[in-house]
Write a sequence for this structure.
């Protein structure tokens, strides 16, 4: 279990920015995820931690050891990639044993460690099978066993589930999380899939175009997004433009447009920043934070689209000049139609204020 620390790490590719000024402090045993769209710099950051790239600027520490320019094989890391990178004509046993043989361990020790690793990923009966005789999910478990068998200080996983079908992806997701908790190994996980990030991580770093947008627990990232990008990348969010018109003790009144106001609580204001009257602001409102019927922050609109999912009734509602997505949990309630008027309300804590 090691702590991983990046201090203002940047990586340039010629004049192009790969990542810029990344500061992170991954705690020992933590499951930490880099999340963001394609090209945001997740893999580049992971590769610098692995030692495949050296930073253009900044420092990387494992505990207090400076590893910034240390070769990958000196870092005691386990890695799993999207494409597994297994040896297809070798057996499961031989693949898992590979890293131990490189380390020149004795045959008896190798056998014991490999068998233990096979058991860990539920492949104890598959030692003699060739890789090309396994399913995608089984191959991914071999890759995981191969990474874990060397008892790494740090486990790095780069989109390990993206080649699996939906059902297997879900099963393997649970399996990886179980192993990680059981072994307590510091884990850094790269994905563009928000569900994976939300369900597996202790903390998530959201990135965009090489720049860190927010670091927080899944709950913090979801409930308190710091900006428009995070609010819309994680889950769905209505992001409405407004202007602060009144600050009353613990709440803020925001004018969305003529005659349409909402009130949010002060502790919901972005980054704990002090707000001022007249300030332009955005309100992030999750579809599930909107309720049907009269109440606080009452809004009136016209239904433009109706979608019934079974679990919920989803409406697209025009409120003034804004379009809002609304998710009503299906409790057998009546379903309105396109063109109907609807009254909505949003509890004060369902409105999260984000900066411009
Ligand atoms: P994906 O999910 O598509 O793998 P990513 O978030 O992992 O994306 P990176 O691969 O880290 O993104 O790329 C970050 C940026 O750096 C991108 O703009 C990419 O084009 C650029 N980049 C990455 N590797 C190189 C390279 N070897 N040479 C030049 N540019 C690169």
């Amino acid at each position: 279990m090691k702590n991983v620390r990046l201090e203002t790490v940047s990586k340039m590719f010629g004049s192009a920015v790969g990542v810029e000024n990344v500061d992170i402090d991954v705690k020992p045993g933590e499951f930490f995820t880099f999340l963001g769209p394609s090209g945001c710099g997740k893999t580049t950051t992971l590769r610098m931690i692995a030692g495949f790239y050296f930073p253009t600027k900044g420092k990387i520490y494992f505990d207090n050891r400076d590893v910034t320019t240390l070769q990958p094989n000196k870092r005691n890391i386990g890695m799993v990639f999207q494409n597994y990178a297994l040896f297809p004509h070798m057996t499961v046993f031989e693949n898992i044993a590979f890293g131990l043989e490189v380390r020149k361990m004795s045959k008896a020790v190798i056998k014991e460690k490999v068998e233990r690793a096979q058991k860990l990923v539920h492949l104890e009966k598959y030692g003699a099978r060739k890789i090309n005789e396994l399913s995608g999910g089984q191959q991914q478990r071999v890759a995981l066993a191969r990474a874990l068998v060397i008892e790494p200080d740090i486990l790095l996983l780069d989109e390990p589930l993206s080649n699996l079908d939906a059902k297997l992806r879900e099963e393997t997701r649970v399996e990886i999380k179980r192993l990680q908790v059981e072994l307590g190994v510091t884990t850094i996980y790269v994905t563009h899939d928000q569900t994976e990030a939300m369900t597996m991580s202790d903390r998530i770093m959201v990135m965009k175009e090489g720049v860190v947008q927010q670091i927080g627990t899944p709950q913090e990232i979801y409930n308190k997004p710091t900006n428009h990008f995070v609010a819309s990348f994680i889950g769905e969010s209505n992001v409405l433009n407004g202007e602060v018109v009144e600050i009353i003790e613990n709440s803020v009144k925001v004018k969305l447009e003529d005659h349409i106001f909402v009130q949010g609580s002060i502790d919901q204001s972005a980054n704990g920043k002090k707000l001022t009257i007249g300030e332009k602001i955005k309100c992030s409102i999750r579809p599930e934070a909107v309720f049907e019927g009269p109440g606080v922050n009452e809004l009136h609109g016209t239904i433009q689209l109706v979608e019934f999912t079974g679990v919920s009734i989803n409406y697209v509602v025009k409120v003034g000049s804004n379009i809002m997505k609304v998710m009503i949990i299906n409790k057998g309630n009546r379903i309105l139609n396109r063109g109907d008027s609807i009254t909505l309300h949003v509890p004060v804590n369902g409105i999260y204020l984000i900066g411009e």
Remarks:
- Helices lie at 42-50, 92-102, 107-120, 136-148, 166-183, 194-200, 218-223, 228-233.
- The CA atoms of residues 155 and 187 lie 5 Å apart.
- The pocket of adenosine-5'-triphosphate is lined by residues 13, 16, 18, 36, 38-44, 192 (CB under 6 Å).
- The radius of gyration is 25 Å.
